[in-house]
Amino acid sequence: MNKFTYRRWQILLCFISLFVLASSFYFQYVKGLQPCPLCLMQRLCVFLLFMFSFMGIAVQKIKGGKRIACLQFFTAAAGLFFAGRQLWLQSLPADQVPSCMPGLDILVHYFPWQDILRSLFWGTGDCADNSWHWLGLSMAAWSALYFLCLLSASLLIYWCLHKRLSVLQLKS
Fold first, then answer.
1. pLDDT at 21 over 90
2. From start to end of the chain, where are the E strands?
3. What is the mean pLDDT of residues 141-170?
4. Per-residue DSSP letters for 131-144?
5. Long-range pairs of 53-60 with CB within 8 A, sequence gap ≥ 24
6. What is the structure's pLDDT at 22?
7. How high is the pLDDT of residue 98?
8. For the chain, how far is it from start to end, CA to CA, in angstroms?
9. Among 3-17, 27-41, 125-139, which is the least confidently predicted range?
10. If I label 170, which of 31, 70, 111, 144 is the partner at 20 to 30 A Cα–Cα?
11. pTM of this structure
12. Residue 103: pLDDT above 70?
């Protein structure tokens, strides 16, 4: 993978992440869908993936590109975890769904930080709400597909850069 191809991949990933991030704000502020704690964590992962791909555009060395690909891989894996957790909560029967908690603003003001982290990482009953579908998939399923694609892309980029670096090392 040469620098031009690497830069094109990072530009593509940057635009896809920007589109997903803009879509999440559209659904919140225009359509009125309030994000649950797991949605907020997924949004954080999308923002980080956008930032890492934006940083990847400016990378000049192969080692730096490999580091960016590693950051993208782990961030996409975290996002896939949160999306998978939300899909699991949505698949539970109504009697097994965890209880709903107050909004994040109330959690921050009145609850200990352990409860805030628990709700952010494991979700609440709000996360089991399945109010939006497109082509038969929920928003959490589309999010999981996005994170799976970015996970695969970062793995492919890392592998290509690693292969190129080993060829360059053999030549010198």
1. yes
2. 133-134, 137-138
3. 88
4. --EETTEEHHHHHH
5. 53/10, 53/11, 53/13, 53/14, 53/17, 54/10, 54/14, 56/6, 56/10, 56/13, 56/14, 57/7, 57/10, 57/11, 57/14, 59/6, 59/10, 60/3
6. 96
7. 63
8. 18
9. 125-139
10. 70
11. 0.82
12. no
Q: Could you give the C-alpha distances from 3 to 13, 43, 91, in angstroms and in order? A: 15, 29, 43
Q: Which of 37, 27, 7 is nearest to 101 (CA)?
A: 37
The tokens for 73 are 């891989």
At residue 110, the pLDDT reads 66
Q: Which of 79, 118, 80, 114 is nearest to 99 (CA)?
A: 118
Token pair in block for residue 164: 């190129």
- Tell me which long-range contacts 53-56 makes (C-beta under 8 A, separation of at least 24): 53/10, 53/11, 53/13, 53/14, 53/17, 54/10, 54/14, 56/6, 56/10, 56/13, 56/14
Q: What are phi and psi of 133, to 5 degrees?
A: -135, 150
* pLDDT score of 165: 74
* Host H or E run for residue 22: helix 3-29
What's the pLDDT band for 4 if we cut at 50, 70, 90?
confident
Reading the block at residue 2, the tokens are 């040469």
Q: Answer whether 43's CB lies under 8 Å from 21's CB.
A: yes
